[in-house]
Amino acid sequence: MALPQLETEPRHMEAPVAVNGRWAGYRALLGARMKELWREPEVIFWVFVFPILLALGLGIAFRNKPAEVTAIAVVSNSRAQSVLDLLRRSPAQAGIHADVLDEKTALDRFRLGQYALVVTADDSGFHYRYDPARPESVLARTQVDDGLQTASGRADPVKTEATQSSEPGARYIDFLIPGLLGMNLMNSGMWGIGFAVVDMRQRKLLKRFIASPMRRTDFLLALGSSRLVLMILEVILLLGFGVLAFRMKVEGSWLAILLVAGLGAISFGGVGLLTASRAQKIESVSGLINLVMMPMWIFSGVFFSYERFPQVVQPLIKALPLTALNDALRGIILQGASLSSQWMPLVIMALWGGISFLIALKWFRWS
Amino acid sequence: MPVWSRIMQLVDTAIRCRNLKKTYDGKVEAVRGLDLEISAGECFGLLGPNGAGKTTTIEILEGLLQPTSGEVEILRRTWEGNERELRELLGISLQETRLSEKLTVRETVNLFSSFYHYPASTQHVLEELSLTEKADAMVGKLSGGQKQRLAVATALAGNPKILFLDEPTTGLDPQSRRQLWEIVRGFQQHGGTVLLTTHYMDEAERLCDRLAIIDQGKIIASGTPAELIAGLSGHHVVEFAIGGNNGFGDDLWSRLPGVQSVRNEDGLYYLQVDEPHHTIPALLSAVQQRGAQLAHLTTRQASLEDVFVQLTGRHLRED
Fold first, then answer.
1. Which of A104, A125, A151 marks a domain boundary?
2. Taking a contact as any Cβ pair under 8 Å apart, which residues of chain B between 246 and 285 contact chain A?
């Protein structure tokens, strides 16, 4: 509704060379944001390089190794040799390495973790010293006992058979990569929106923007869109890395993965905007962002399954947005689940994002 | 531009406010009843010391702050209900905006011009502000003066009718200040209206057609710089010091012919006089009679600083 008195005349500098359309501001804001991100080496590192390094490090540390040889100590006495003979004849011999040592040395090294088990033979039979808190110690006890019993002539009443299986899809790296992807989407959403907004507020740039005819919705849309562009790169890089470096298999459709990751990116963008809605200083928003993310690093099943936490807190854990994102990503990537079967986590993410965004809009300060 | 439209502009009111008040948190009264009427085509200055309420006033006029009470009209429009339309017509440079350092000068101007329906050509704005050479330099690499010119460039990116500048030259070297004055004059010559705040009296004196002196949230004087100085009792200032000051009372100097007022600051006397050629001989003989020596003597035209000091008893800048 232009008022006639306010026609464009007089133009002081020169006649306008172009007329901007409705979306010129949005496009320029998005372009500027992408350029700024691209020219910031820290952003490239934290968003793209860091998660890959993390995946690489953890993938190597927890790679599936061939069954390890169990080291045990046999206390040296007159019967020590018979223990070794029995073990050598037992079916478990390939997996057990036995050293004969005096009792004190054997116990010391057992304490230091060098040996998983200490065996003492006497007239009454064999005595095992093991630590029930150490899984390899428990395993060694069963293994050695089994071997000694069988070699001494125990007959198994039932014949059993076993097949070895370590297929791609069930390894730790397969569990880890979708979790890292979820965590990365959270990190870059919270920092990419929360930090950027407070930084611009502190620099009075937000105030300068609203002193111009910029549409405030365009500004928020451009911020959100820049997150989506980065999200696509994050997904392709991290999953691509898993596929190429660890022969990971992506069971579900890439489109479904991108949609879920996109919803996650937007959802965390909303939470990021909420944490940044009032803060005046970068220092205060940094603390706030870490405070929000900390519980999710631990509880949301990034590095290990959240099933390990007590049953009573499970509903709370499942209500966290990162848990929802990780569950949906794992469902689709590892099990090939359909988008619709993941409606529950999707709804949780949408609620977090939507409610945060609405509160953020109500609280938001441009100056 | 046809003569009649030039005349229409001069009688047109660009900015008007009445009884403007702003109280922060219900106790700090930053602006205490301010009236302004600025005509189209004028360069108007708000002159005052730090904390006088200049920034609060200009930000209320820019529609960035809500006044506690009072009326504001920009181009005969209130902010309420006309914000989009008004923003298209205003160019604003805030006191301290740190633009994105990772964008180039050209990208920054392009960004701001994208917000306007009828933007100026970026190339043209860069030329006007002598930033063409720096067009592809990152904002982070610019000098203080160049950054300030860029801030004004972003304000001109939308071909505004009114330019608001909040302390545009604070902290700049003399050359950069003069460069900015030229830019403001150029904008004004093309028919633009300028409202600026400053605490530099020379800036106000040389650049502004009219100005208002603000102190503690109120206008204490307004008019053209010449009118304000003419309003002083005594248009000239005689400054002198006595060697080995031996207790002359101020009343001795105020009895000299033509002296309107006497100020003594750390042994330096300021006499405000109408006719220095009558006062100075009398001053010299008075000093001689008492067997004292002049350590220093100058005479100059009264400035806006003297106006401010006479009105408030304080200086514009307490250094």
1. A151
2. none
